[in-house]
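Collaborator request, handled under Task 6.
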Amino acid sequence: MKSVSISILKKIVDTDVLHKNNKFKNEVVAATVVFSWTMLIQRLKILAAFGLISNFFFLPFFVLLK
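Structure tokens returned to the collaborator:
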């Protein structure tokens, strides 16, 4: 009886670890996507600061972000 409960517990722990790893991977992917978006927007802001892009181009971006 004891060995059965231990094996069940071990299975639960293993699946939990797998789930956590998967969640972690998803979070890393999400963070990467967000980071690349922010980098893109920073570059666009820099270009706008130099006057190469009009500020009207940005309005849709900021509306989408907020």
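The cover message to the collaborator said: "The longest helix spans residues 2-49. The mean pLDDT is 68. Please let us know whether this matches your experimental observations."
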